[in-house]
Amino acid sequence: MSLNRAISKFGNAKILVIGDIILDQFIWGSVDRISPEAPVPVVKVTSESFMPGGATNVANNIHALGGKAYICGIVGNDNWGNILKEELAKRSIDIEGLVLDGGRPTTLKTRVIAHHQQVVRIDREKEAHIDDNFLESIITFVREKISEVDAILIEDYGKGVVTPALLQAIIPLAKEHGKIVTIDPKEEHLSYYKGVTVITPNHHEAANAVGLGRFNLERDLEKVGHELLNRLESEAVLVTLGEHGMCLFEKSKKPFRIPTVAREVFDVSGAGDTVISALTLALVSGANMRDAAVISNCAAGIVVGKVGVAVVTQDELRKGIERWKP
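The structure assignment produced for this chain is given below.
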């Protein structure tokens, strides 16, 4: 299947995204002096904006690329949760799977940006594992929705939603229904993900996950990739390498290196979300693992050229594919 043919089928894809729900707040401004109180810049605020983040940024990426996204996770009973739901509604993202937890706040990441540069990030969150009753609500929703979707995408930011109990319920359920399961992982949770279709760690996460402190790209990459593949018993491991592109590991196949297509890098915020979104859409749309990895690499190369947590459109991706030279 050609890359463009797979992209043309994105509109038929239905993906259930499960994971940590985050609201991204951006405070935009300018700097022309240093504070007399401390050696820090004084940011004169000019505007403020909000974007879906974490698992909801993945859903937003799927929507921007033409797919249908269903989001499932925990939000607080607070103003940030209301803003996030409004942002998702604007994008026609299904929020039926959002579970309200009055005992924890909606995770909020505030980025202060001046002259296209991030000055500081402020995180407001609670990272404890979700309570059993909320866990059961998520599992119940997945059981009800799984026959309607083509894949389950797990977005693990380590905020307490993705737990062993959750995955022990969801992964077998997905296999029973013949569904693809893709994971954007948290390195500390490696043991949780056994038996999934594909996992997408960056090279730091991959190296740390197998206990390798220092990572040399040329010396250690193959060892790390194959070890993860064997440990997880997954169909594939796609290791993202920043400015060096990606490397795909599949059972009984040689590693497949993919060079980066990024022309300029302004902001890597959310790049991993774009990778997992495009990869999952491509697999659901009939692409083989290598072609899906190439498509996701092109999508990531586009999004890092934008400021802030951004998304890629289908038209942008098609143009990116045209520029890609194997």
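Interim note for the steering committee: The chain is about 35% helix and 30% strand. The first helix runs from residue 3 to 8.
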